Amino acid sequence: MALVRDLRPLQVVSIIFFVRILSVFLVQTWYVPDEYWQSLEVAHKQVFGYGALTWEWRKGIRSYLYPSIFAALYTVLKITGLDYPEAVVLLPRLFQAAVSTAADYSFYKWTGGRKWALFLILTPSFWFYTSGRTLLQTMETAFVAIALSVFPFKDGKLGYYEKESNKWVWLACVSTFLRPTSAPIWLVLAIYNIMTTNQEKFKLLTHTYIPIGFLVGGALVALDSYFYGKLIITPWEFFKFNVLQDVASFYGTHPWYWYITIGLPVVLGINIIPVSWAIYNILNRRKENKTGLLLLAVVILHIAVHSYIQHKEFRFVLPLLPIFMYLAQAVIVPWSRKAEKWQLYLVAGTLLLGNAVPSAYLGLIHQSGTVKVMPLLREAVSNNNGSSILFMMPCHSTPLYSHLHMNVTTRYLNCDPPTVPGETYESEAFYNNPLRWWRNEYSARQTPTLIVMFDVLKGRVESLLQGYKLIHELPHTQHPKDEVGGKVLVYQKMNTQEKQQAYEGV
């Protein structure tokens, strides 16, 4: 980018770190349950002794490696007496932002220190939205960027004589163990590496791939077996449940072409323009873009495998973002050398604005209520001894103990996949008949002190709320759908005096 002077490595790292930390404080919205329930809630239970584990942890389809990182951070807070709720919430996100900083800097080095590359990796709205979230896909994306920065690409004749690094193999093995569906990325790269290596192919397999695979696999099997209390291979359990048994489709299905028509366009946003230009350029000049063809092969196989799986989400293609941004900078940089200054300003400004608007909306407005409600609940519980909280919402609509950080009784609707086809799960049963569910649940025990719900449910449970008062009403989304409403409501049980005053008011 000709408009920016040369940057030193420390300056580059500082810029990246600033943007990633900025995302931690600006992105204050809910995205998906896994950000909390597959990482922070597990870690909180490990360290503080109370928390909630979803069915995945009872079935053993998740590795404890990722939650254990946050457990280590929690342990430091616990030992030092600094485990204030705010610190418990913030520290894991700061850590993930630091990892994303390392990934972005690796991407910058991979491109040869091009300023356009720095601009392109810092501005994507979906990466700004997710780079500070404690999602396994965020870590997976970081692995991809770091691994590609040390991968032995054979660009030109000199590439065949360069010393090959095997650091990427370690990251590939860890990534595949944590999430087996990331295997297509590494499979294409491994085949390419074996075919183009300047080492003896058999030696590469026996001295690099196999030993690293056994070391990583053995260490992680040992880690998981220790926490599960039995010998277990979590990648196999993951593959068995989510692919062979297709349990993942219980949480929603999409047509095979969803990633092409919706998934990728949303994740790329306005960056789809330079990415499309790059793909056209690669296909039009294949001999000059061997690395580009390789990266396209990675993208195609990853999308093909994930398109075969019925359950689809935007975050599942997030690890492809560094690849797409690499392709984009490969066409923008040559163009920028010949472009007029006003053209540079126009392109940079368009990309920046086109990413800033969705970043602000997704980070500050869309689905904010279920995160903002947690400190309010913490305050309400602190003011009422013996409190209990009922979340009358679709399952896992909020964080839990990782954000409450109080050993308070909570109740949330269960949505474990049914063991028998056609069987009704609890969340479904609740929404079919909330009043019946309430009678069954609270006929023999005390009703909850606090109730958290979406506004769309209010009309169906008016009779249950007669002994409660509304204490908080939070905006959540402008696009309510099904059981997810536009507002989050918090009700608190009234004491005797408040009930009498309410009765007299009527």
Describe this entry's structure for a reader.
The chain has 506 residues and is mainly alpha-helical. Helix content is 59%, strand content 6%. It has 23 helices and 5 strands. It has helices spanning 9-26, 34-37, 40-48, 55-59, 65-80, 85-110, 115-122, 125-130, 136-150, 167-178, 183-196, 201-228, 234-244, 258-268, 272-284, 290-308, 321-336, 341-364, 369-382, 401-404, 426-432, 434-442, 496-505; strands at residues 388-392, 409-412, 450-454, 468-475, 487-493. It is globular and about 80 Å long. The model has no long low-confidence stretch (mean pLDDT 93). This is Mannosyltransferase. It is found in: Endoplasmic reticulum membrane.
As a whole number of angstroms, the C-alpha radius of gyration is 25 Å
Mean of residue pLDDT values: 93
Kindly report the spatial arrangement of strands forming the biggest sheet. 2-1-3-5-4
Q: What spatial form do the alpha-carbon principal axes imply? A: globular
Largest pleated sheet:
5 strands, mixed
Provide the succession of SSEs: HHHHHHHHHHHHHHHHHHHEHEHHEEEH
What is the helical fraction, as a range of percent? 55-70%
Class by SSE composition = mainly alpha
Number of strands: 5
Instruction: Provide a count of the helices.
Output: 23
Strand content: 5-15%
Straight-line distance between termini: 69 Å
Question: Which spans have pLDDT < 50 for at least 5 consecutive residues?
Answer: none
